[in-house]
């Protein structure tokens, strides 16, 4: 697949009026998203890596993204996120195996073949691989998009593995911008532990908290899962295009009465995280 020209990127510092003007329309279902997708393969050792480019084929990719250990490219969480992201900017998703080191090498192969993107990202194990690849690349990405980052291992015990999961986040340089998208019911990413880890990171970090979402970004009712996935992708792409360093927290949730995803907008600081949770929960229960 030929490389494409790079679209002009907005400054990371944008005022609220500019952000409002650039915000994409609400994505309620898959029909709201342009179905542009190009399938291709990238050479990798004596094999190939299966890739999908979602979005415009005429401009360079903004994000190179990979799935978790429990699902492939066709996983609902991956497809919905990619389509929501592609409504704003192009994204390449690639298929990997369950070996973490191999997945990191695949990031290298896709970047070498397609050229560097503004960001690397992934969900679950794929998010860990994105962090490790960013630490190894000679020209690291400006940003990382980490969906359902697994701070603890799966299984009943949910063991912490600080060296392989927390330390690599702390090793990221100050120049890297990191977006976490995590559900508040994610058994592998306790938000208190994530807050503790974020506090130790040198890199600048943002958090999108998804109310009621588990590690697979599943929510109730089931009919809301697709809309939540599309919205997280849309928010991530808008953040990558234009982000405010002073506003680092956003919370989204499904509103049954409105039959839509509600987003509280970007807020400042830990205190605002608590305030936004309280306001949205009161609105939902009121």
UniProtKB/TrEMBL annotation:
Chain ranges of the KANL3/Tex30 alpha/beta hydrolase-like domain: 109-224
Ranges for region Disordered: 1-30
Basic and acidic residues: bias regions: 19-30
InterPro entries to which the protein is assigned, alphabetical: AB_hydrolase_fold, KANL3/Tex30_Abhydrolase, NSL3/Tex30
Coiled-coil blocks: none
Protein name, UniProt field: KANL3/Tex30 alpha/beta hydrolase-like domain-containing protein
């Amino acid at each position: 697949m030929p490389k494409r020209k790079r679209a002009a990127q907005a400054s990371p510092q944008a005022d609220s009026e500019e952000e409002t003007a650039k915000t994409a329309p609400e994505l309620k279902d898959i029909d709201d998203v342009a179905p542009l997708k190009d399938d291709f393969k990238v050479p990798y050792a004596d094999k190939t890596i299966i890739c999908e480019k979602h979005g415009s084929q005429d401009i360079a990719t903004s994000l190179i993204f990979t799935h978790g250990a429990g699902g492939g490219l066709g996983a609902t969480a991956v497809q919905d996120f990619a389509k929501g992201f592609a409504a704003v900017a192009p994204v390449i998703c690639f298929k990997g195996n369950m070996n973490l080191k191999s997945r990191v090498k695949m990031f290298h192969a896709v970047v070498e073949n397609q050229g560097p993107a503004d960001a690397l990202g992934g969900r679950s194990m794929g998010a860990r691989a994105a962090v490790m690849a960013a630490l190894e690349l000679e020209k690291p990405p400006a940003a990382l998009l980490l969906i359902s980052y697994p701070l603890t291992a799966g299984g009943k015990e949910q063991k912490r593995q600080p060296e392989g999961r927390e330390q690599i986040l702390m090793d990221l340089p100050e120049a890297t911008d990191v977006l976490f998208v995590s559900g508040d019911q994610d058994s592998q990413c306790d938000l208190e532990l994530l807050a503790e880890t974020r506090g130790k990171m040198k890199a600048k970090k943002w958090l999108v908290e998804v109310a009621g979402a588990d590690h697979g970004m599943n929510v109730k009712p089931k009919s809301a899962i697709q809309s939540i996935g599309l919205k997280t992708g849309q928010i991530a792409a808008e953040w990558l295009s234009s982000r405010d360093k002073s506003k680092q927290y956003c919370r989204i949730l499904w509103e049954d009465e409105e039959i839509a995803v509600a987003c509280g907008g970007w807020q400042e600081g830990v205190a605002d995280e608590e305030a936004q949770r309280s306001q949205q929960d009161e609105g939902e229960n009121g």
